[in-house]
Structure formats: C-alpha cells, structure tokens
C-alpha cells in the first residue's frame, strides 16, 4: 500500500532586515557602477555595455581669455582620451561655450572696489562715488559689471583717475590688487578678511551642462594657480608704543587684573597670524610705579602681551635699560620662555643686530629695527659687547642689513626708534605739528633712505602720537603709530593710535589696512569708528599736505 505524504514544514525564513539589506546592497552596487561609468569611470574601462557611447565634447573658449589660462585648459583637457579618442576638442563654434557669469564656477574672478591710498572713505558706495573699471578685465566680465553698474566707465590706468578725496573708486580683479591702492569694503565686508566682500564672476559652461562642467573642473587642476587662493593670505598686526608703567600700572594694580589694558582690543590684536608690539619697558620684580621718566614694570604685566596674542616684541625702545641692562636681559629671557621672538634689541650688541626672519603661509618676512636717536646721543639705552640694549644705527649698517634681508626674505620691514615730538600743547586740544614727520633731524629723509636701500615697509614705532604715512617709490612709509598701551591721557594726540594690518600673499605685500584706536581715562585701548576714526584720518591727511 502506497502512502502519500506531504511535508508541511516551512523552510527557514530569514529575518526581514537581512532581506532588505541584501536588496539595498544590490541596488546600491548597481547604481554606483552605472554612475561611475557615466561620470568618467568609462575613461578607464573598455566598451561598457550600458553607458552612452564615448562622446567628444567640442569647446569654444572666450576670445579674450588670458593666454596662460587658455593654454592650461587645452593642455589638461587634451590629455583625456579613450583608446585614442579625445574627450574634448576646441573650435571657434564649439558645442559648449565657456563664458563668464555671476556666481561660482570652474574659475572664480573676484572683483573688488579700490580707492586712492590716501582716501578717507572705507566703504564702496556706488550712489555717491564715480565708478571705473579696469580695461584688463575679460570682456564678458566687463559686460556683466555694466549690467549691475551701467554708470561705470572703462579706463586703462586706474591710478590716474583715483582721487585723494575718494570720490572715484575702481573695480579691479583681486589678483591685480596693489598695496598702493586702498581696498574698500563691499557690502560691509573687507575681502581679505571675508571673500564675500567682492563681486564674483566665474568661468563655466554657458549652457549650464553640469556633467561637462564637472568633468572640466575635475581634470583641469592647473587652474588653481590662476585663482586667488585666500588660504595663502598671511596677516600681521603691527603696533606702536607699549609702555605698561606709571599711571597705567596703577590702573592694573587697582583692577586686580594683570591683562587689564588689553581687554577691549585683545580679540582684534590676536585675530591674525603674527602680532607685533614695541615694548619699551623691562620687568623689574617689586617695581613700584612712579610718575617720572624712569620706567619699570612688574613681571606680571607681561600678561598683557599674552592676552593680546603677541608673537613678536620689538626692542628698539629707549627705556628698556632704565633700571639697568640686567633687567632688560632677564625680560628678554622671559620673552623666550613665553615663546616670543624679538628684534631691534637684544642680550648684547651682536644679538641686538640680528635680523628676525619669520615664514608664514608661503611668505618669508624680515624684521629689522634700529634705535636711531639714542645712537645720535650715545645713551645707555644701546646694547654693548656685554650689555643688553637697543640696536645701534649706522647708514652703512642699514644698507648692508637690508641687502642681506632682501636676498633671504620676500618682504623687508624696517622699524625705527626716532626722536619723539615733544611739542604738546598745555591743554587738551589738537596740535597738528606732531602728526607730521620731524624736520630736524630729518625723519622723512631717513625713512625714505630705507626704501632706497630696498625696504618694502618702513615704520616709526617711537611716536606717542600718530604721524602721517605715504607711498614712496611704490613702497609704504608710516612715520609714527602712536601709543598702543600707555597712560598719556592728557592730549587727544597721545590717546590716538594706529594699528597696521599687513596682508601678504605668495611673497608679496598686497595691502595694509589702517585701524584707528583710542583710550580714555580707563586706559583701555579700543578700535574707533565713525567720527573718531574720521577725525584721526583727516589729521593724518592734513599733515601730509
């Protein structure tokens, strides 16, 4: 008898999560392979079955595209081929036209507003300013500019049309920015701090074909050398007199905060790569502040430098040996323990004469400092064979130092401790004479001589009151920066100060921005804006006339 039997047991079921995962992986792998082959993987594979036939894209390049960019495009894109078939060809009537448009693309052109170096204005205001643009801009960029600013005029020589009043501004490609023009804010943003402070025009495919655009962007890596790379910008803050003593020391002691003077300005000072101060006072343990002209500081006051993010201390000042060279020496050793660099003075004559070299983001800087006035007088402020002090000046020495620095660094900065202007009024009124370079001794002649010898930037760090500045032979001279930290509150001039923010890129100075400062009875320095800023800039302007 045959028995019929039916197996009613169910096969083992896999968890639903495993089934879903397997389905997902299959779909993902298929999608990835298709995308890989479509977006360029086919360049390395032979005759894929499920992608479009390998196409050659015909490109038309703008006729006024800079020759070096055109060459790079053609060189790099011509290398892409499959079995001898090129991915790109070039013709005057190509299927895809490269052109400029607003916004980001394959290669960005940043266009920024500039004014005359001496202009008081800080902001781009097309409603109040005459506008011009450089004839060196690509034709399509010019057309786009005129769509936004139809009143703008094309000119060949920007410098000829810019005026000191700032009534005419120019729109230039940021790579052509010069230190002898003044970069203005665009829509409240300063480009070298925020690249939104510019108009942006980009080179890309006019048809908007993202596949072809992405293919170009991935393969023309050499275009980066023609772009303005903000990551190469090195920022240096350079300040005037720091003298943490006398009435300022009493303020610090009363506050119980050794970083007291820097509280309102520390964030600005340290928001750069390198911060410089010229500290004129040595630390003396047990120092008791007096009201005279013999200065000392408590070692704890070095907290001000730490709070300010200081990296470099200039030692050209004439008060560092007020309590003896031994305290100057011990203070220098304190700087070293803090990781600070120094120049313009040192542990002895040889050390004081050393040039300080610093490299940051591809730019090598040389700092040289001299105490000119105490050299003339022959005072004890100067370094000796076995004595700490300031660097001695001589004309021949400066010429040799600058030549040496010029051969080893990209940018040479020369600082002077010059004679101070003591012609202060008896009351708190503006006294214009101290905003000018001194006539005797000849301050302008000395500072210009440093440029003649090869300096890129020349700065007077002796001035307790800001002095004017100028462009000389394409280089910048700042005759005096005024006080950063001190106690001179009796006069408007000594409460005023200047901070220089130098911007370097790829071995060149591209801009120096002037920040105006002030301190009041609390002796806490702060950045000034509005009427206070305009007042100081106008005083400097008048002093130059």
Secondary structure layout plus pairing:
Layout: H1 16-38, E1 57-60, H2 67-78, E2 81-82, E3 85-86, E4 88-90, E5 96-102, E6 107-116, E7 130-134, H3 139-148, E8 153-155, H4 158-161, E9 168-173, E10 181-183, E11 199-205, H5 210-219, E12 233-242, H6 246-255, H7 266-270, E13 274-279, H8 303-307, E14 312-314, H9 325-337, E15 341-343, E16 345-346, H10 349-352, E17 356-360, E18 363-371, H11 372-377, E19 389-390, H12 395-408, E20 411-417, H13 443-453, E21 457-460, E22 469-472, E23 475-478, E24 483-485, H14 492-495, E25 497-505, E26 508-518, E27 526-527, H15 530-544
Protein described:
- The relative contact order is 0.09.
- This protein has 545 residues and is α/β, with parallel strands linked by helices.
- Strands 1, 4, 5, 6, 7, 8, 9, 10 and 11 form a nine-stranded mixed β-sheet that branches.
- Strand 13, helix 8 and strand 14 (312-314) form a beta-alpha-beta unit.
- The protein contains 15 helices and 27 strands.
- It has two domains: 98-227, D-Maltodextrin-Binding Protein, domain 2, CATH 3.40.190; 231-544, Metallo-dependent phosphatases (Purple Acid Phosphatase, chain A, domain 2), CATH 3.60.21.10.
- Residues 1-14 and 37-51 have low confidence and may be disordered.
- It is 27% helix and 25% strand.
Compact description:
By secondary structure, this protein is of the alpha/beta class.
């Amino acid at each position: 008898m045959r028995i019929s039997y039916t197996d009613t047991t169910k096969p083992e079921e896999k968890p639903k999560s495993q089934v879903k995962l397997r389905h997902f992986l299959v779909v993902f792998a298929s999608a990835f392979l298709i995308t890989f082959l479509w977006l360029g993987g086919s360049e390395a594979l032979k005759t894929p079955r499920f992608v479009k036939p390998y196409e050659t894209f015909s490109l038309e390049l703008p006729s006024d595209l800079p020759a070096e960019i055109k060459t790079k495009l053609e060189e790099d894109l011509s290398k892409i081929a499959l079995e001898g078939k090129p991915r790109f060809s070039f013709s005057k009537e190509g299927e895809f036209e490269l052109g400029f448009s607003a916004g980001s693309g394959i290669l960005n052109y940043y266009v920024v507003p500039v004014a005359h170096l001496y202009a008081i204005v800080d902001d781009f205001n097309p409603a109040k300013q005459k506008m011009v643009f450089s004839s060196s801009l690509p034709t399509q960029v010019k057309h786009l500019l005129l769509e936004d600013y139809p009143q703008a005029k094309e000119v060949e020589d920007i410098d000829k049309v810019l005026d000191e009043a700032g009534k005419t501004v120019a729109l230039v490609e940021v790579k052509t920015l010069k230190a002898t023009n003044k970069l203005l804010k665009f829509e409240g943003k300063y480009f070298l701090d925020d690249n939104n402070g510019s108009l942006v025009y980009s080179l890309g495919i006019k048809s908007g074909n993202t596949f072809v655009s992405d293919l170009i962007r991935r393969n023309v890596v050499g275009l980066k050398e023609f772009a303005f790379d903000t990551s190469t910008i090195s920022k240096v803050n350079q300040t005037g007199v720091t003298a943490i003593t006398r009435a300022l020391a009493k303020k610090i002691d009363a506050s119980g905060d050794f970083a007291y003077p820097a509280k309102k300005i520390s964030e600005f000072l340290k928001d750069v790569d390198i911060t410089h101060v010229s500290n004129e006072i040595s630390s003396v343990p047990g120092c008791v502040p007096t009201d005279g002209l013999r200065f000392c500081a408590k070692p704890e006051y070095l907290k001000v430098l730490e709070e300010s993010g200081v990296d470099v201390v200039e030692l050209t000042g004439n008060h560092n040996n007020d309590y003896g060279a031994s305290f100057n020496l011990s203070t220098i050793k304190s700087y070293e323990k803090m990781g600070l660099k120094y120049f313009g003075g040192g542990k002895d004559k040889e050390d004081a004469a050393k040039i300080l070299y610093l490299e940051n983001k591809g730019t090598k800087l040389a700092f040289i400092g001299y105490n000119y006035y105490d050299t003339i007088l022959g005072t004890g402020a100067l370094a000796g064979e076995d004595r700490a002090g300031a660097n001695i000046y001589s004309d021949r020495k400066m010429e040799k130092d600058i030549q040496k620095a010029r051969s080893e660094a990209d940018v040479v900065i020369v600082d002077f401790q010059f004679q101070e202007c003591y012609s202060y009024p008896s009351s708190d009124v503006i006294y214009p004479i101290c905003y000018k370079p001194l006539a005797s001794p000849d301050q302008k002649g000395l500072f210009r001589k440093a440029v003649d010898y090869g300096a890129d930037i020349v700065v007077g760090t002796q001035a307790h009151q800001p002095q004017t500045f100028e462009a000389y032979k394409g280089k910048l001279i700042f005759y005096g920066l005024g006080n950063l930290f001190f106690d001179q509150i009796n006069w408007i001039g000594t409460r005023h100060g200047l901070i220089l923010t130098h911007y370097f890129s790829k071995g060149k100075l591209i801009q120096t921005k002037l920040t105006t400062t002030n301190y009041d009875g609390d002796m806490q320095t702060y950045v000034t804006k509005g009427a206070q800023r305009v007042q100081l800039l106008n005083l400097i302007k008048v002093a130059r006339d």
